[in-house]
Amino acid sequence: MIKPNQTVVVLDFGGQYKELIARRLRECKVHSQILAGSTPIEKLKEIAPIGIILTGGPHSVYEESSPHTTPELFELGIPVLGICYGMQLMAYTLGGEVKSCKVSEYGTIATTLDEDSPLFEGLDRATVSLMSHTDYVAKMPKGFKALAHTGDCPVAAMENAERKLYAVQFHPEVERTVKGTKLLNNFLYNVCGAKGDYNMDDFIKNEIERIREQVGDHQVVLGLSGGVDSSVCAAILEKAIPNQLTCIFVDTGLMRKNEGDEVEAAFAGKNLNFVRVNAEARFLAKLAGVTEPERKRKIIGEEFVRVFEEESSKFAGSFLAQGTIYPDVVESGLTTGAVIKSHHNVGGLPKETKFIGLVEPLRSLFKDEVRELGRKLGLDPKLVNRQPFPGPGLAVRCIGALTKERLDILRDADAIYREELEKADLHYSQYFAILTDMRTVGVMGDGRTYNYVLGLRAVKTSDFMTAEYAHIPYDVLDRVSSRIVNEVKGVSRVVYDITGKPPATIEWE
Ligand code: XMP
After folding, report:
1. pLDDT tens-digit profile of 472-486?
2. Residue 188 CB–ligand 1 contact under 6 Å
3. Architecture of the domain whose range is 200-384
């Protein structure tokens, strides 16, 4: 019999970082389960976790409507780590005092670790942590000792070592807290007795079991775009429910050179039903004469839904699978903030459907974890390491009105550009060509030309929210430019985009 993994329960008090905490625990090779802050003590006893983490949250413990807990939680003999609101809740529940700060702390703050603690092994005494709070622990509960402070927060961390209760006012789970993951690792290994018995193989095993349980003998339909997420989603579904999966690949005619065939080849011969819908003519007809970027996106999104609905209507009574990953969940859940560009493949599928449920195996994973999962599942590394490609495809890289001829020019130029960068072993985060709608005069042989200006973009970024342009060596740019102008009819001038994000975005439309 397979031994179950040690588990840490993450009790959610409404903070925005619960999945990030779970992700850090996976990095530390510990399995976790996120549960509501209101989970009954009985349920926790049943799970018997090796530790409990209380997340942050937007509340103040003194608001009546804010989530609370009972002292019993701290009497289970299970180590607890409170983070931000979780720390205040621990203090408040055990008889301490929480007050509103005179000066709220937001951002990275110089933090002094004053005491030795199992939490602080390997951390520097003078460090930096991410704070985000307006309340603080003014008086610790009996039996606690202060471990750290900042300029405006006298108790930035506290412990009751005897009862294995620990708390930090800052957020160890975010990158901006220096050695934050080490602190979590210390909690797991120095306090909870973690053995590090969880890895991606366990994730696969558990997820396969979960998918089988959810789906039973029903069929599952997946919209496969050929991108990393939907491909990895297809791969795990194929392992979990062989011969119960249909992948519908809508070829919009807006893909890169040979991409449609590559996607088909990657899934041919697997235990799934692969349906390729060649919808280029439909998409181009709808997009004829449209130049405004947001209109293009909308039309493509709507047409995609229509084609997908038509194809999938043959599978009424099936489950719908989606390769949603955790950052998509966050992004689509955001209600505030200006819409810079609408991303059609986030929550863009039909709302009213004949499907009986939604299967989302990657919902808790971050992008790099999805790639690792794909590698473990044996997908071609070329596919797994694919750079992001926007849902509306080349439509947003072909400025102005779209025609097959213009898209083909872009495809050929883009393929040369990517080939040369790869040959030069330059692996930037994202790189692609853009066909502008501007034509300029050139000279070739003895004749005058009047052809398009082609843009090249390459950026370095870790989160795609901000980016810097890549410093491509001139000799590589030389080769790219001369090959494109010589080999692609219709382009007579090549320019390189040297703008960062912000102020520009990565895509041109
Ligand atoms: P921007 O251009 O907003 O792009 O700086 C950030 C990242 O998002 C990708 N992108 C999209 N992805 N649908 C998508 O799925 C879209 O409509 C879309 N627009 C931009 C872009 O390629 C970059 O990686």
Report:
1. 999 999 999 999 999
2. no
3. 3-Layer(aba) Sandwich (3.40)
- Residue from 159, 171, 259, 398 carrying the catalytic annotation: 171
CA of 188 to the centre of ligand 1 (A): 37
Identify the bridge partners of residue 435 per DSSP, sorted by sequence position: 398, 454
pLDDT in tens, 388-425: 999 999 999 999 999 999 999 999 999 999 999 999 99
pLDDT of residue 353: 63
Whole-number pLDDT of residue 462: 80
pLDDT value of position 311? 93
Contact predicate 418/411, CB 8 Å = no
Could you give the residue range(s) of every CATH 3.30.300.10 domain in the chain?
404-496
Q: Is 28 in the pocket of ligand 1 (CB under 6 A)?
A: no
**Mean pLDDT across the stretch 185-196?**
98
For ligand 1, is residue 461 a contact (CB within 6 Å)? no
Q: Are the C-beta atoms of 239 and 209 separated by less than 8 Å?
A: no
Q: Is the CB of 428 under 6 A from ligand 1?
A: no
Q: Whole-number mean pLDDT of the chain?
A: 92
User: Beta strand 468-469 with 80-83: parallel, antiparallel or unpaired?
Assistant: unpaired
- The pLDDT of residue 335 is 31
Mean pLDDT within 462-472: 89
112 lines ligand 1 (CB under 6 A): no
Residue ranges, CATH 3.40.50.880, the chain: 7-191
Pick the catalytic residue: 28, 84, 153, 398? 84
> What number does the ligand 1 atom closest to the CA of 342 have?
17
Atom 24 of ligand 1, nearest CA residue: 388
pTM above 0.70, yes or no: yes
The token duo for 243 is 């011969």
**CATH of 7-191 given 3.40.50.1820, 3.40.50.2300, 3.40.50.880, 1.10.246.130:** 3.40.50.880
**Structure confidence at residue 16 as a pLDDT band (50, 70, 90):** confident
Q: Closest residue (by CA) to atom 17 of ligand 1?
A: 343
Known catalytic membership, residue 84: yes
Q: Which long-range contacts (CB under 8 A, 24 or more apart) does 157-165 make?
A: 157/113, 157/117, 157/119, 158/87, 158/91, 159/117, 159/119, 161/117, 161/118, 163/74, 164/77, 164/78, 164/79, 164/80, 164/191, 165/74, 165/79, 165/80, 165/82, 165/90, 165/94
Mutation test residue for ligand 1: of 230, 255, 343, the one with most atoms within 8 Å of CB: 343
pLDDT grade for 342, boundaries at 50, 70 and 90: very low
Q: Which CATH class is domain 404-496?
A: alpha beta
Calpha distance 459→429 (Å, rounded): 6
Does the C-beta of 202 come closer than 6 Å to ligand 1?
no
pLDDT, greater one: 3 or 77: 77
pLDDT tier for residue 367 given thresholds of 50, 70 and 90: confident
Ligand 1 atom 12 nearest Cα: 390
Where in the chain do CATH 3.40.50.620 domains reside? 200-384
Q: 202 CA distance to ligand 1 centroid (A)?
A: 32
Distance CA 311, CA 250 (A): 9
